[in-house]
Specification:
The complex is a heterodimer. Chain A is mainly α. Chain A is built from 9 helices and 1 strand, in the order βααααααααα. Chain B has 2 domains: about 140 residues, P-loop containing nucleotide triphosphate hydrolases (Rossmann fold), CATH 3.40.50; about 60 residues. The chains are: A mainly alpha, B alpha/beta.
Chain lengths: ~230, ~210
């Protein structure tokens, strides 16, 4: 009577729906984006006009603000699907929950991480970053923000159904963000002192690969507990 | 209705349900074959929802097993889920999406590919013609319920698990739903449901299970 949809098209529909819902509530997505722009722009204003100082602090400032703005949206990652019962239906889908979780993470990254990759080089100009530094900054953010969404998903699922999750997520997730921060900012720092950033980028890639394997599994386990 | 033609059976074996540290039910046994409507009764807080969630595999039973065609549902996982249509307390509806978008998404989640005009026709039949293109947050409680229930007309899955399906529905919608459940059971479907409304169903096999007894 009906054709069955393939796994791929079901997963695509999940991604499409998350983006559609976010589009109808643009303010949430925009808030994260502008938080990053404003917070990162405050530092050059506050620390005077010494180009050397700005250049030296740029990687850490940009990375820490990216990390914080990614975290801002974590509590919303699963909360509304949990509240209205969509999450139950997702668990009962004929597709593996792990893949559905991965799609939700991907949607979160496209909405909160990916925009930062594009805007960060512009902000970087305020910090007197060179072309080479800006390139590595964007590249490290491209890999790093995906890792942030993956790791953040674990915190978001673990705190599902608990009141006042904001601070709790931060406490759970920030320590796990340390390797991403160290290698992400480290890659840009390497360019600043004239060393190849490849080492730091490879390690960042390793963190990403590990998160890609383990974060969806851990999130799925946490979801099963939350829904029981 | 190809899916419904084959013989299917849902059985519970010495099921024990616990919520927190309270025992809800123990030594629960039942067997549903094609055409059965199993009607769970019991006062509030006697474990009806817990039992329904256990049957569809969302919660694991404290002890005992639930079997679908002879196999443990927790081992079957997705292979069992593709036969189940669960509509719980929560409608599973996104308030920012329209009725049609919500319906299409919930159908897609269970892998059904339903044409848009067919989905629209069912929503219209359920009296949602005016709300088709409105975000569902503009709809009333009963209308949202109808959007959630619309899946029943569009998917052929052999097992329905319905938690209070008649809540918030007016008489005409209640009648439509009743007829649909009866037709489904006559075609060989299995329904496990709870309700506080007085509803008489004319189905091949009607069984009742009291949880507070």
């Amino acid at each position: 009577m009906h054709k069955k949809l393939s796994t791929f098209s079901v997963l695509y529909k999940i991604l499409e729906r998350d983006i559609k819902v976010a589009w109808r509530r643009q303010s949430d997505v925009m808030a994260v984006f502008f938080f990053f722009i404003i917070a990162a722009s405050l530092f050059p204003l506050g620390s005077g006009a010494d180009p050397k100082l700005l250049n030296a602090m740029a990687p850490s400032v940009l990375w820490v603000t990216a990390l914080l703005s990614c975290m801002l949206s974590l509590s919303r990652m699963y909360a509304s699907d949990y509240a209205d019962g969509t999450l139950e239906q997702m668990m009962l889908s004929n597709q593996p929950t792990v893949l559905i979780v991965l799609m939700k993470i991907l949607a979160h990254w496209m909405l909160s991480g990916l925009p930062l990759v594009f805007v960060a080089p512009l902000i970087g100009l305020q910090f007197n970053l060179s072309g080479a530094q800006l390139q590595i900054l964007a590249l490290s953010l491209l890999m790093g923000t995906l890792a942030l969404s993956l790791i953040g998903s674990i915190g978001a699922t673990l705190t599902l159904g608990i009141r006042g999750t904001g601070v709790l997520i931060a406490i759970l997730v920030l320590p796990l963000y340390i390797p991403v921060l160290v290698f992400g900012a480290g890659a840009v720092n390497a360019v600043s002192i004239g060393v190849s950033p490849n080492g730091a980028l490879s390690l960042l890639g390793a963190v990403l690969a590990m998160a890609l394997v383990f974060a969806p599994l851990a999130s799925t386990a946490a979801l099963k507990i939350a829904l029981e | 209705m190809g899916l419904l033609a084959s013989n299917r059976e849902l059985t519970a074996d010495n099921l024990v349900g616990v919520r927190g540290d309270r025992l809800l039910f123990e030594k629960l046994n039942f067997k549903c074959s094609n055409g059965t409507v199993l009607y769970l009764q019991g006062a509030n807080g006697t474990g009806k929802t817990t039992l329904l969630r256990t049957i569809c595999g969302l919660s694991k039973p404290h002890a005992g097993v639930i079997k679908w065609c002879g196999e443990n549902i927790n081992a079957l996982a997705e292979d069992f889920h593709q036969h189940v249509l669960y509509i719980g307390h929560l409608p599973g509806i996104k308030e920012d999406l329209t009725a049609l978008e919500n319906l299409q998404f919930s159908l897609a989640l269970s892998g059904s590919n339903v044409m848009e005009d067919k989905a629209t026709a069912v929503l219209k039949m359920l009296g949602l013609a005016h709300g088709l293109n409105l975000p569902t947050r503009m709809l009333s409680q009963g209308q949202k319920r109808r959007v959630a229930l619309a899946r029943l007309w569009l998917q052929d899955l052999p097992l329905w698990i319905l938690d209070e399906p008649f809540t918030a529905l007016d008489t005409s919608a209640t009648d439509l739903l009743k007829q649909k459940i009866e037709a489904f059971a006559h075609d060989g479907g299995i329904v496990v449901m709870t309700t506080h409304q007085e509803v008489t169903l004319h189905v091949p096999k009607f069984e009742q299970l009291r949880l507070d007894a």
